[in-house]
Amino acid sequence: MLSFFGRETFAKATAPLGKALVSTGLTPDAMTLIGTAASILAAVTLFPSDHLFWGTMVIWLFVMFDMLDGAMARARGGGTKYGAVLDASCDRVADGAIFGALAWWAVYNQHSSHLFAATLVVLVTSQVISYVKARAEASGLSADGGLIERPDRLIIVLVGAGFTGIGQYWGIGWLVYAVYVAMYILAVLSIITVLQRVLAVRNSPGARDLLPPKGTDTETSENTPNSGSAS
To answer: Does the global pTM surpass 0.85?
Structure first.
């Protein structure tokens, strides 16, 4: 959704910075690890301690920092398969830290079981959305599309958390509930996206072709007499 319209623009905007960073000797993989580690640290320290505004600002900074790894890879002439796996893995860990920290805040600061449940739904479905696509592509199928992807989730949750932090700081009562609205919306959209991706896989060419039972090839080879002479 949001990522579809902004990805190309973001790539063009970060291209000069990517070239500059590559010239320093920093690698895309190092950038991925730095951005992920900083995002996790900010999430697990600032969100649970009820510093939602500053947590949002720091996480947003390092999320943007982490996204520069793609610009660096393009500036270097392309990424690597290892880099792609590392980036995807780090994204999952960072997402888990962000939503896990918010779940902690929901329980111990807000004492809200509803917000906690919505946050857990988003935490689980965010992992499933990515896994469905990765597993489908590994099987030669397609799982593209869906209402929201990772950039969309981050924008929605960080905007909600940031406004809640502002509401707390300035004493604006209704603004405090911004993160509630954000998480409820995310929970619904995430469930829909999971269903959309599973349906996309189901409708992919060859998705419902029968697979041979596991062990068939092994059993056949074991039962075939060896034509060679034993020494």
So the answer is: yes
Give 124-164 pLDDT, tens digit per residue.
Answer: 999 999 999 999 999 999 988 889 999 999 999 999 999 99
Q: Is 91 a catalytic residue?
A: yes
Domain layout of the chain by residue ranges:
8-204
Per CATH, the number for 8-204 is 1.20.120.1760
Report the chain's terminal Cα–Cα distance, integer Å: 66
What are the percentages of helix, strand and coil residues in the chain, rounded to 5?
75, 0, 25
CA atoms of 92 and 72, how far apart (whole Å): 21
Active-site choice (29, 66, 91, 95): 91
Q: How far apart are CA 76 and CA 53, in angstroms?
A: 35
59: phi then psi, degrees, rounded to nearest 5: -65, -45
**53/60 Cα distance (integer angstroms):** 11
| Integer Cα distance of 142 and 189 in angstroms | 20
Tokens of 93: 């860990």
Residues in the chain: 231
